[in-house]
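User: YceI family protein, Pedobacter frigiditerrae:
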Amino acid sequence: MRKLFFALPALFLLASCGGSSTDSAKTTTEQTAAAQKGETLTLDTTGTSVDWKATHKGGLAPRWGKISVNSGSISVDKDSLTGGEFIVNLGSLKVDPASVTEKDKKASDLEGHLKSPDFFDVAKYPTAKFVITKVEPFTGTQTSNLLTDPNYLISGNLTLKDSTLNITFPAKVDVSAAGVSATAKFVIDRSAWGINYKAEGSPENWMISKDVEIGLNLKAKK
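Assistant: Predicted structure for YceI family protein:
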């Protein structure tokens, strides 16, 4: 991504990839992991994925794609989510060719750049990790423009490269006799984890948005 960032909009729209500030994940320091009470289910990695979307300056030239999950678990107690964690395989990061429409650009080139030291430095940091630290009901006083009918507010430690920060975002979780499915969509500021490529200095000088939209799609079978 020569002139663009991991476009995650100016991670995990922020000058903006179309997201709203109400969907920006609240970011704080690392917190203690939640106890995984009740039944612990192994994530179905074939049905679990992470979506990403990012943009150039001013929301132009959006890019998007997927990243696979290596492993993970979700815990439920009496049909309620209690905890969980998963490992993201950054080496699997893919750019959707449909998002790269310029004649002189290739999705494969952007993939290579996002995996380079300018962004995720996959050779040194091959995985990312998310660990749930708090689960609470999503109330009517909160808002989410990116996700329809969320029922949980989830907080968790997100580790990217050598930094771990706690983020809070809305999620929709369905617990049934067959298993658990969870979806979430929110925006993170990549620079909080030290990923600053083309976003240094004053905002008017940024070439790639600092904001990245993240979509989580988790599934676990009972």
